[in-house]
Design brief:
heterodimer, A: 565 residues, mainly alpha, B: 210 residues, 8 helices, 74% helix
Chain lengths: 565, 210
């Protein structure tokens, strides 16, 4: 517990910020971040880690878009193209998505439930550094995939690594082993952190905060972490089997010895489908905190929001085989997975209507975080609708593994998840740094990114319907996909411009932004009651709450919420 | 920012800030250790479930022998030892809660011995299967799924035994006191989980699979 009260400053995490220290050396700063068990520092490191890999995976996508911008292009080699789509997908899910959601959960959950840290601070640091090791292990494959002596090669088996391609006979060298081990190590970190957050939420809420008075963000993260426990472990199990196959010669996924390639598909998607809900539920959580504040209304239908999320969690573990309609399952199985998948639309629809109900009749403020939330509502609705289309097995038989599917899941993960990560970064940036970001640059980022996003991913549905398969290296000129692909690739330029403005805004505002004060948004949850950035112990006195909006009660003593809840 | 008020939240053991002072007045909350261990057990259960599913899925699909019926024998004594270690660890915990550190050490040692005997039994079974029956991980699907499922469980027994032995070392050094009962209880939960998993593995491998 050394150090000053304000060491939660984000600028000291950045290379440029370290030079501004007066009495402490750069090494002292680095040391304090390396050994920290503080949930805020670990949260920020998770977020920075996720953002760094977001840029890396974004560059990988950009290279692929250059390759696909024109027919018969030879900008990349086919081998490199395979590695790029594998690394792009793997990175975005495991090294961007997971660190970002755990970063925000780490930073926000204790502050929002009035606790001083997570239940197990050292386990928290352990989980973070495991994730870092997993990421570095995966990227080390670029130089070490064939062993130190030979040239490196990154994994090229696709992010779902279907058998028997991953078998020793077809994936020589160690690139696939890096994929297995990197993700497995990161998975251990995810399980540890999920257990930590669940324990924190159930054991460490401040006085008066019953489960029914918890901020929705804490509720949704509780459900998300429960899903991590149930979903990440099957992947770990399947990866142990794959490792046994590759190193000890067992036959789990070895089709020539009676093993089953289909079983890997089942095991992977038992993880893989809940995983996308694991990513999107924190996005729902951000929307459920930000939209009420910028609509100046309490969230509409709080209990229904919780129930709908629990329902999504339940249904999500029984939908995995909608990724496998084309492999020839029985019609009973097909029917089951069509119905269960379509059922997800019900609780998700309830949530969308509740956010609209929150905005309805509210006094809307269109600051940058709210703009991203509104874009999220539109884009996630479209993503859900194409999801319902793909859930119909006969439609899926036509479009499975086409660019229509690629457009669909990028609508959920970029149009939903990434957009809400931006909203959350803008919304909580003043809390983490104590400074306001530039609203003008924020709006530039928003419009450039959203415009680029729609140029790329709206257009991408069409070549999919025209029959363009995903993961192809190049295509012939006469197919009629050329112009569409050029438009798709042009959209990337706008997105990159938006991201550059975002990074510039973040770095500059962290050092030169106007002071934010404790509560720049006039918000209602506990994190805004402490200083910005919060002291290491978060709260000098553990707060007591009486309603879901404790700061509203303090600001409006004559009309407190607890009279009505 | 009252310094005195802040220091009262320092945890005496770790020096970390805790909610202890605030929680003292609040209604009782579930134990962090128990809840954390429960989360681990849920995650571990999911891992075992996948291995059990693989075992059942590949049952009888071997392209070549030997089959489970030909080579597997019921490990009755082994199973009795492991399951009774769940009873002895409960005795050990009861002794510790009542302040009897001697009784704790005795029952704890019995628990370790029973666990070690189980492991020895598994080792002998595997030795017999490998050298007398010629069944390895590579032989057929039965070998693949049998060694991985039983081996996954055995590796959990090994981890459990290491943890139990560390507590035993502390107990011999006289460092395990009545106030540590809650922490020992958390470890005991893990040991119970390992035993319960054995009931599942036993049923799947030696009863259904044979």
């Amino acid at each position: 517990m050394n150090g000053t009260v304000t060491t939660g400053d984000i600028s000291s995490a950045m290379p440029s910020g370290a030079t501004t220290a007066t009495e402490k050396t750069v090494f002292d700063h680095i040391h304090s971040w390396l050994v920290t068990v503080d949930h805020k520092k670990l949260g920020l490191m998770y977020i920075i880690y996720g953002l760094v890999f977001f840029v890396v995976a974004g560059l990988e996508a950009s290279l692929m878009r250059i390759q696909l911008a024109m027919p018969n292009n030879h900008f990349l080699s086919p081998q490199l193209f395979n590695q790029l789509f594998t690394m792009h997908g793997t990175t975005m899910v495991f090294l961007v998505g997971m660190p970002l959601i755990f970063g925000f959960a780490n930073y926000l959950v204790p502050l929002m439930i009035g606790a001083r840290d997570l239940a197990f601070p050292r386990l928290n640091a352990f989980g973070f550094w495991l994730s870092v090791c997993g990421g570095l292990l995966l990227y080390f494959s670029f130089i070490g995939g064939e062993g130190m002596a030979g040239a490196g090669s990154a994994p090229d088996v696709g992010w779902f690594a279907y058998a028997p391609l991953t078998g020793k006979a077809f994936s020589k060298g160690h690139s696939t082993d890096y994929w297995i081990l990197g993700i497995m190590v990161g998975g251990f970190g995810s399980i540890a952190t999920a257990a930590n957050i669940i324990t924190t939420i159930l054991c460490m809420r401040c006085r008066g905060m019953t489960l029914a008075k918890m901020p929705l963000l804490a509720w949704l993260n509780l459900i998300m972490c429960g899903m991590v426990l149930l979903a990440v472990s099957p992947l770990t199990a399947a990866q142990i089997m794959l490792l046994l196959d590759r190193f000890l010669g067992s036959h789990f996924f070895d089709t020539q010895a009676g093993g089953s390639a289909t079983l890997w598909m089942h095991f992977f998607w038992i993880f893989g489908h809940p995983e996308v809900y694991i990513l999107i539920i924190p996005a729902f959580a951000f929307a459920s905190e930000i939209i009420p504040v910028f609509s100046r209304k309490a969230i509409f239908g709080y209990p229904v929001m919780v129930a709908a999320t629990v329902a999504i969690g339940f249904v999500s573990v029984s939908v995995w085989a909608h990724h496998m309609f084309t492999i020839g399952m029985t019609s009973t199985a097909n029917t089951f997975f069509v119905i269960s998948t379509m059922m997800v639309g019900i609780p998700t629809g309830i949530k969308i209507f509740n956010w609209l109900g929150t905005m309805w009749g509210g006094k809307l403020r269109f600051d940058t975080p709210m703009l991203f939330c509104i874009a999220f509502l539109f884009q996630f609705l479209i993503a859900g609708l194409t999801g319902i289309m793909l859930a119909a097995a006969p439609f899926n038989w036509q479009l499975n593994d086409s660019y229509f599917v690629v457009a669909h899941f990028h609508f959920t993960l970029v149009g939903g998840f990434v957009i809400m990560i931006f909203a959350a970064l803008y919304y909580w940036f003043p809390k983490a740094t104590g400074r306001l970001f530039s609203e003008k640059l924020g709006k530039w980022h928003f419009w450039l990114f959203v415009l680029g996003f729609h140029m790329t991913f709206d257009t991408m549905h069409i070549p999919g319907i025209l029959g363009m398969p995903r993961r192809i290296y190049t295509y012939e000129a006469g197919r009629g996909w050329g112009v569409l692909n050029l438009v798709i690739s042009m959209g990337v330029i706008l997105q990159i411009a938006g991201i550059l403005i975002f990074v510039f805004n973040l770095l500059r505002s962290a050092r030169k932004g106007r002071p934010a004060g404790n509560d720049p948004w006039d918000a209602w949850t506990l994190e805004w009651s402490t200083s910005s950035p919060p002291p290491e112990y978060n709260f000098a006195e553990i707060p007591t709450v009486k309603s879901r909006r404790p700061l509203w009660d303090i600001k409006h003593p004559t009309d407190p919420d607890w009279k009505y809840e | 920012m009252n310094a005195a008020a802040t220091t009262s939240y320092l945890d005496p053991a770790t020096g970390a800030l805790t909610n202890a002072a605030a929680d003292a007045e609040a209604r009782p909350r579930p134990s962090k250790g128990v809840l954390g261990m429960t989360c681990l057990i849920i995650a571990e259960s999911a891992i075992f479930t996948i291995f059990v599913v693989a075992y059942l899925y590949y049952l009888g699909k071997d392209l070549a022998g030997p089959t489970p019926r030909q080579v597997l024998e019921l490990p009755i004594l082994n199973s009795i030892c492991l399951l009774s270690s769940s009873v002895t660890i409960t005795f050990a915990l009861r002794s510790l809660r009542n302040g009897g550190t001697k009784g704790f050490g005795f029952w704890w040692l019995i628990t370790i011995a029973l666990g070690a005997y189980f492991l020895l039994g598994t080792a002998r079974e595997w030795h017999h299967l490998i050298y007398d029956k010629g069944l390895t991980l590579q032989t057929n699907l039965f070998g693949t799924t049998f060694y991985s499922l039983v081996g996954l469980h055995a590796s959990h027994v090994v981890v459990g035994l290491i943890a139990l032995s560390m507590v035993m070392a502390f107990a011999i050094a006289g460092a395990v006191k009545q106030k540590h009962a809650e922490r020992v209880h958390v470890l005991a939960l893990y040991w119970h989980f390992v035993d319960v998993v054995w009931i599942v593995v036993f049923t799947v491998v030696y009863i259904i699979g044979r």
